[in-house]
């Protein structure tokens, strides 16, 4: 039973119990308190359900891609250094040639 | 051959250069993520704290209701006015109340744990997004090395001279192509 229906049932029993004699009144109040316990137990359910709707990407995949990009950048930096070295050689050759 | 090689490399490097505004934005984005992580962490902390308070409050409420049921039931039994059926009803009420109290508290704690887990996941996600930006930024900033090659290469007096010569040669070639076309057309009677 959802919270709304539980509350409706509590209201119905509360209204009815005022006209009852013992022990029926006590039985009715017991039932109200049991329904009340169920409602208390559901106090965080709505918040939990709303948060559960948040859909996030797979963090493992994200970390794998990030690590791969970092590795690729390091490789790129190595190639750039290699190009720098080649260009320095080229410049030297040009100076000699010209 | 050397000239064309230099011009080819220069063209590629010019094409690869990232605007400085983009690089600056990339760096700033890392700072923005630091703020976002802080904001999400604080929000998650508050949400978790409030959820804890609610859980504690409702757990007390469950205990209170359970105590009322027990007290009421004991009073009914003590009255000595119950029929056999009613006495059985009292026993059932106590058993149901015990089970309901236990399940309700379990539900409360399970929901609280899930709320904490989701909040933590959100904080972890934002932190991971910052790592993504750092990785992207590292590559963007590393193009500075490429720019250095370009600047160094183009500013070398010999290369600069060669580039100027190439520009001059290009205009001559274009003119010559035009003359050649005219010659071919006149030979074909056009």
Please tell me about this protein's structure:
Chain A has 98 residues and is mostly helical. Chain A contains 4 helices and no strands. Chain A has helices at residues 3-17, 24-41, 45-52, 59-97. In chain A, α1 (3-17) runs antiparallel to α2. The termini of chain A are far apart. The model of chain A has no long low-confidence stretch (mean pLDDT 84). With 190 residues, chain B is mostly helical. Chain B has helices at 2-16, 20-79, 84-155, 157-187. In chain B, α1 (2-16) runs antiparallel to α3 (84-155) and α2 runs antiparallel to α3. The mean pLDDT of chain B is 79. Chains A and B meet through α2, α3 and α4 of A and α1, α2, α3 and α4 of B.
Tags for this model:
heterodimer; A: 98 residues; B: 190 residues; mainly alpha; 4 helices; 0% strand; rod-shaped
Present the secondary structure layout.
The complex is a heterodimer of chains A (98) and B (190).
Chain A: H1 3-17, H2 24-41, H3 45-52, H4 59-97
Helix pairs in contact in A: 1-2
Chain B: H1 2-16, H2 20-79, H3 84-155, H4 157-187
Helix pairs in contact in B: 1-3, 2-3
Shape of chain B: rod-shaped
* Classification by helices and strands of chain B: mainly alpha
What's the β-strand tally of chain A? 0
Q: What's the gyration radius of chain A in Å?
A: 37 Å
Pick out the low-confidence regions of chain A.
none
Helical fraction of chain B equals: over 70%
DSSP strand tally of chain B: 0
The largest pleated sheet of chain A is described as: none
Radius of gyration from the alpha-carbon trace of chain B, in angstroms: 40 Å
| Biggest chain-to-chain interface with counts | A-B, 46 and 62 residues
* pLDDT < 50 runs, ≥5 residues of chain B: none
Order of helices and strands of chain A: HHHH
Oligomer: heterodimer
**How many individual helices of chain B?**
4
Shape of chain A: rod-shaped
Helix proportion range of chain A: over 70%
Percent in strands of chain B:
under 5%
Average predicted confidence as pLDDT of chain B: 79
How many separate helices of chain A?
4
Give the strand content of chain A. Answer: under 5%
